[in-house]
Design brief:
heterodimer, A: 117 residues, mainly alpha, Cytochrome Bc1 Complex, Chain D, domain 2, 6 helices, B: 453 residues, alpha+beta, 8-stranded antiparallel β-sheet, 6-stranded antiparallel β-sheet, 20 strands, 23% strand, globular
């Protein structure tokens, strides 16, 4: 669950991604991966369940991104801490996970003070 | 309390709808396939490919056109190796959601790939609620029912027995609608995914309701002495015996008309029990009891009131492996005592509590509570980062001694010969399986052991 404030921020982030897709500016959105993400990863990555970094939040993704995209992929496939292997996405392949990582880390925005999960 | 956005609301927002508008379900996955792992990470396989059908027709066509090994996968939550295959994984995620509902009969039909945690809200919107849920709700309906997953309560069967109708796509690609009176009904509701792929099912539900959960700590022997009375008095009653301790956490859940009062736990509250377990683990098992008992007695009772599905299931962030057996009700207390004494006597270095609860009998062929008597279900656990085998190997023979039947989705080592003695209708299931899948394309190594010996 997320508060209304958080939900609006997240929805705005997704609108930004949609805009980016339309203009071709950055972070191309893979619709297959987005649908898979909504069914699986969204369980935790919308509201930060179990310490999961929230979509679009710079402070939460920054240290993770610093490890490199391939490391994030490895953690996703093998599981890390509370995130199970494959992040609940039994249908996902390598390209899907990479697209999801790109989606969640595109247009990173700083979370408002006191709005941490 | 501030207003909330649920995940459902977020996913239904116009922003995501816009993104999904261009989604083409036929989009092919690229190869080679990633390895598959289960939730705990203990099981790994390298499938030839993943097939994620968007319709029953697409699945039927795939099964009719191919002949290689196939295993269906739900959420990958089973601890037993039901899924691993070097053939194709059939992923049910896209066969999900509420398909139809019957307000008069209080029944609703869902895609079999629907996660249990995604059922409560849409069901409530049409004036229905599931009768019971297991402790964890991340499993799919298909996976939970195929393994006879259950919740707690002497008045409640496993989820499979609430299935009123299901659709099965057989290994040959035939589509069968199966309901009461059909020759496959009792087998198909708990099938271990060995009869084909279940694509949808109709559940018997009830009107929405609210539950009040109360937790408290009590001496294990005191809880056992009154367990039958408590199980009869409460809608749900169970206990979580602490290892190397005389105490257990208990949980009673009852219907209520009281207002919702279920504030989310603070990070500190969420971490508290994990920190306590880490503290206990820092002391050798033989010296642990005073420490565990001392902390246990400090645990304050808690209460929570909410819509049924928000009370019955919990989010379990710490991953683990689990073994669970059901023993006849009258053997439950003695079986539990012997397990707890063995853990103490053998100084097993485990701090994860056990779980002890009752489950009502049912009329499926292979549910752990099928037949003419209710059962006591006892679970043992190990954190996913630990080797569970020595502990589970030590305890499993105790379950056998009391006539235990394994939970199909949890770790066990039994094969066809032993299982046939535990299930009066086991042979009937074997014959049905052989008839539907004579070439054994739905079998993997684990299921060959379970059904062929």
């Amino acid at each position: 669950m997320v508060t209304a404030g958080k939900g609006v921020i997240l929805a705005m982030g997704v609108f930004m991604l949609a805009g980016a897709q339309a203009s071709g500016a950055s972070a191309p959105v893979n619709e297959r991966a987005m649908a898979l993400w909504a069914r699986s990863c969204a369980l935790c990555h919308i509201d930060g369940n179990a310490g999961a970094p929230r979509v679009g939040q710079a402070e939460e993704w920054g240290p993770r991104l610093a490890q490199g995209r391939e490391t994030l992929l490895k953690h996703t496939v093998e599981g890390l801490n509370s995130m199970p292997p494959l992040g609940y996405c039994m249908a996902c392949e390598r390209e899907d996970f990479l697209a999801m990582i790109d989606f969640m880390t595109a247009n990173l925005a700083a979370a408002p003070a006191g709005d941490q999960p | 309390m501030s207003p909330r956005w649920s995940r459902r609301d977020f996913l239904a927002s116009s922003a995501l709808a816009a993104l999904f508008a261009a989604y083409h379900p036929g989009a092919a996955a690229r190869s080679p396939s990633l390895p598959w792992r289960n939730w705990s990470g203990a099981l790994v396989c390298q499938p030839q490919g993943r097939f994620s059908p968007s319709s029953e027709a697409e699945l039927a066509k795939f099964l009719a056109a191919t002949s290689g090994p196939v295993r269906p996968v739900g959420a990958g939550h089973s601890f037993s190796p039901l899924v691993p295959t070097d053939g194709h994984l059939v992923v049910l995620d896209r066969l999900s959601g509420l398909l139809s509902h019957d307000p008069a009969a209080l029944q609703a039909t869902f895609g079999a790939g629907t996660r249990l945690g995604d059922i409560g809200a849409p069901l409530e919107a049409v004036g229905q609620a599931m009768l019971n849920l297991p402790d964890i709700d991340r499993q799919t309906l298909a996976g939970a029912t195929a393994t006879a997953t259950h919740g707690t309560g002497i008045g409640f069967t496993c989820l499979s027995a609430y299935v009123q109708q299901l659709r099965l796509v057989t290994p040959r690609g035939e589509v069968l609608d199966i309901g009461p009176g059909h020759e496959l009904f009792d087998a198909a509701r708990v099938s271990l995914g060995a009869l084909g792929v279940v694509t949808r099912m109709t559940l018997q539900n009830r009107t929405p309701y609210r539950l009040k959960a109360r937790n408290w700590v009590a001496p294990i022997e005191e809880v056992l002495e009154h367990f039958d009375a408590q199980a009869a008095a409460h809608r749900h009653f169970e206990m979580f015996p602490l290892t190397h301790s005389d105490y257990a956490l208990t949980l009673a859940i009852d219907e209520t008309d009281e207002s919702v009062n279920n504030p989310p736990a603070s990070p500190e509250e969420e971490a508290a029990f994990g920190e306590a377990m880490a503290y206990w683990a820092s002391v050798p098992p033989r010296e642990r009891q005073a420490l565990v008992d001392g902390v246990a007695q400090q645990i304050e009772p808690t209460e929570a009131i909410d819509t049924s599905y928000k009370i019955l299931s919990n989010v379990r962030n710490g991953r683990f492996n689990e073994m669970e057996y059901a023993v006849p009700l009258e053997a439950g207390a003695e079986c539990l005592r012997e397990i707890l004494l063995t853990i103490k006597a053998k100084e097993v270095d485990v701090v994860f509590p056990l779980e002890y609860r009752y489950v009502k009998r049912d009329d499926t062929l292979l549910s752990m509570s099928s037949g003419h008597e209710d059962h006591a279900a006892i679970s043992i656990h190990r954190m996913a980062s630990e080797d569970y085998r020595p502990y589970f190997d030590l305890i499993e023979p105790i379950f056998w001694k009391y006539g235990g039947r394994p939970h199909w989705g949890k770790v066990h080592s039994l094969g066809a010969k032993q299982l046939a003695k535990l299930y009066p209708r086991f042979k009937e299931f074997q014959e049905i399986r052989e008839a539907l899948d004579p070439k054994g394309r739905m079998l993997n190594a684990h299921l060959r052991k379970v059904f062929l010996g």
